[in-house]
Amino acid sequence: MRFGSVDASRERLESLKSSGLLGDAHGIDFDRVTELAARAVNVPVSLVSLVDEDRQVFAGACGLSEPLKTSRQTPIHYSFCQHAVNLRQPLVIPDARKNPLVAKNPAIEEFGVVAYLGFPVLGAGQHFYGAVCAVDTVPRQWREEEIEVMRGFTSIVSALIEQHLGRVYQKLLTDVILHDLKMPLGRIQAAADVFAARAGELPHGLDALARSLKGSADQANAMVGTLLSKNRQVGRCDDLHGTAQTAAKLLRPRAEEKGIQIRVDETAARIPLELPDRVMAQVLDHLIANSLRFSNIGEVRVRIKRIGEAAIIDVEDDGPGFQAEDYPRIFQRYAPLSAKPTGGEASSGLGLSIVKTLLESEGGTIVLLSRPGESAVFRITVPVRRQD
């Protein structure tokens, strides 16, 4: 038997299901929000309830007893929150036993739900996904300040959901773009293979460019393939020195145009890393390219060593370095820095922030070692892979 009727419009239900919030992999700590809400209004139970077609799912919960604490859901006819969704406005119930909308709800007898205060929470496309609520086991006249407090917590939950939906959309968009890149990149790689195979027949100078083009095409295709892969273990860096040498080789034609040498120090032993090879390649590509962009003399040096369970990579150039005012914003996105490209190149102001984000997502770090006015020295620290 069903008590009341939930908004079961196809659009709302599809939006809720596609949001990823009904599972437990969304990464949002709704439990913390409900814990704070319960303390703020002095109730035994607070919930973030998502109202599906035949059930309500507690994405956030504080104060539940078993079996609800483990199951974190009930059939829909136990739901008070469905009415907040249907009404599209706050639901304030001092005593559920006397309220005709919910008086026959089995949650009153089975779970002791007597007083209820709930606000519908907005998801995508103006659809209400569920409600943020406070529950008491005794009759209660909800004060105006308590209602406003719950309104505030609902605003927080709504903002968290909005941020989550933005990440979901960006991931979908990225997957589509990566998929669509495969065909043109395949054509570029095919052309690069032809040029590289006939590099010996090309005029002097173009042969190195042809090989560099093939290396770049191979790298781009590998990056797209790895990004599309669901298995993060695929493509881990097996040889840090080899990855550094490859990055240097791809950038040498650009360096030679500016009269700059790229030197990668030799290492005594192979150093395998925990992070994917594509990440290490991107990091080195950004740092070496950055050094070339802001230098016009000398060389770029890449030094590699292992200390315990970490690999240390220093990237140093002979450029002008940074000024004191640059240091607080060196890794910020779009931050204007004092140094200017020396060959008319464009600088997006994103390279160093991308490097920092890539490394930190894989347990690595980057710091600027050099002092103001000195040539730039960046130090990367990344975890070494333990022997399998």
Automatic annotation (TrEMBL):
Coiled coil: none annotated. Its EC number is 2.7.13.3. SMART domains: GAF (SM00065), HATPase_c (SM00387). Keywords: Kinase, Transferase. Pfam families: GAF, HATPase_c. GO terms for molecular function: kinase activity. Residues 176-386 form the Histidine kinase domain. It catalyses: ATP + protein L-histidine = ADP + protein N-phospho-L-histidine. PANTHER family: GAF DOMAIN-CONTAINING PROTEIN (PTHR43102:SF2), SLR1143 PROTEIN (PTHR43102). This is histidine kinase. It comes from Luteolibacter arcticus.
